[in-house]
Structures are given as C-alpha cells and as structure tokens.
Amino acid sequence: MQWKGRRKSEQVEDARGQRGPMFGGAGGGGGGIGMLITIGRMFGFKGILAALVLGVVLWKVGIIDMNFLLGGGAPSSQSAPVQSSAEEDEQIDFARVVLADTEDVWTAEFSRNGMRYELPAMKVYRDRVQTACGAGQASMGPFYCPGDKTVYLDLSFYSELAETFQAPGDFAQAYVIAHEVGHHVQNLLGTSAKVQSMRGRPDYNQYSVRLELQADYYAGVWAHHTQKYLDHGDVEEAMRAANAIGDDAIQKKSQGRVVPHAFTHGTSEQRMRWFSKGLKSGKIEEGDTFAMAYDEL
Length: 297
Description:
Elements: E1 12-14, E2 18-19, H1 31-60, H2 66-69, E3 78-79, H3 86-112, E4 121-125, E5 128-131, E6 134-137, E7 143-145, E8 150-154, H4 156-163, H5 170-189, H6 191-196, H7 204-225, H8 234-244, H9 247-255, H10 268-281
Helix pairs in contact: 3-5, 5-7, 5-8, 7-10, 8-10
C-alpha cells in the first residue's frame, strides 16, 4: 500500500504513556463506594472488609487510584513518558494515514447521501486502556467504542496479525482499521444501537454477525475508493486477514471444532465475500446485511 508522504489524520491520540486501570468502566456510578454497597448487599460486612483490603493492595501496586476507592467514579489513567521506537512511530504514522483515508471516503459517501459525517477519534495505547465502554485490553485486538466514538489500537496487533493469524502485510492491517471505522459508520447511522437493543434475545448472535459482516462491507467500500494507492497483492492481504479471523477458523484453531450457533462475526467465507462486495460496489447503500435471510448472508 502506498501510504508514505500522504495526509495523516489529526484525530489520533498517542496514549501509550497512559497506564490504564485494570478494571472499572464508564457509567458505573458511585465508583468504589457504589461497588462496596453492591458487595455488602451480596456478601455482607465480611465481603466489604475483604473488598477494602483488596482495594488497598491494588492501590499500592498502582492498578487503581485513590479517587476510585473514594467514590470518584472510574479510575483515572496514569501518565508516563513515552518510550517509542522508529518502528512504532512508523506504525502510528501508517494508522494516521489509513484513518485519514477513511475520513475522506466516508465524508464523501455521507455527503452523497445527504448526510454529514462526524469524524471518529483513534487512541493508540499499550496493554490496557480506559474507555467510555469500560476497560479495554490489547488481547481484545483493535476495537471501537460507540460511547466515545473512538477506535482503540494497541500496536501489538500488527505482529499478532502476521504471526498468530498468518495474515501479514500493511493492507491487512489497514483492512482491520477500516473495519473498526465501519462500526463508527454504523454508530452514526443508528444501526449499532438497534442491534444493541436486541441483546438478550435468543437470536442476538445472528444480529451480531450481520453487524460485523456489514462492517466488513464498509471496509470494502473504503478499499474501493483507495484503489489508486494499492500495490499488487494488497487485496489478497486483506482477504487473508478476513479469512483468518472468521468465526469458524478461530473456533477450529482454538477448540478443534466449529460451533455455528456461537458465531458472532461470521465465517471466513462470509467475511471475505462481504468485503469483496464493498470493494466492488463502493456504495454505502448496497451493504444492507439485515435485509436478507440469515442463511443467505
């Protein structure tokens, strides 16, 4: 992918120096005090004493802060000087260029459909991070939080994509970022909220699959409009990534068998197919994964 020397997004925050909390989340209300009340109701006075002891230990080792223990809400992140490398700096620059591409593509697509696109933010972090959706960890991979309209990216995902999923290449990395931005598009359109409202239904996983496949389609839309920057083999890199992170591929690798009713993102074949649809179409309105029968996806 030809990305060097091109426009970089101004929406990226380097939060690698922030030490995010081990736990806690937005919207909890009451911080540590609220948590102690809940523990007291469930386990009585002994439970409260045990929680207080644990809280002090975690505070001393720097995992949570005193503000949380005293009821100040979600723990604040601690900042430290960022020790970076030339490789990490280049990885961040690459993410900024990809995000800038998505800004251009989706601003134009929304405008074509009579809408205004609100730019998402991106936060680059290490290990763990606090978000409006709760605590995030590097093991989760890149993710999008609708609560603060931010894509979260731990740089370790670059190597994980290549080594764990056998999907190397800069365009494979770009596809994953574009997929998360696709979730931002869904958030702006209200699609994510509709699916979230179905949580708890027996068929909720099917709606989760539809949501994820649509985000793959939107990643394809982005790729359609950036083809002039692609090198030979770039699309194949994205397809390998989509194939590697299908539910069936991950289940077979992790547990030796495939459990279709537990799918949340779609099969490898589905993910590749919907990315390809977006790549061919380039139009937001042709990616309605909710308009067909589930077994036709």
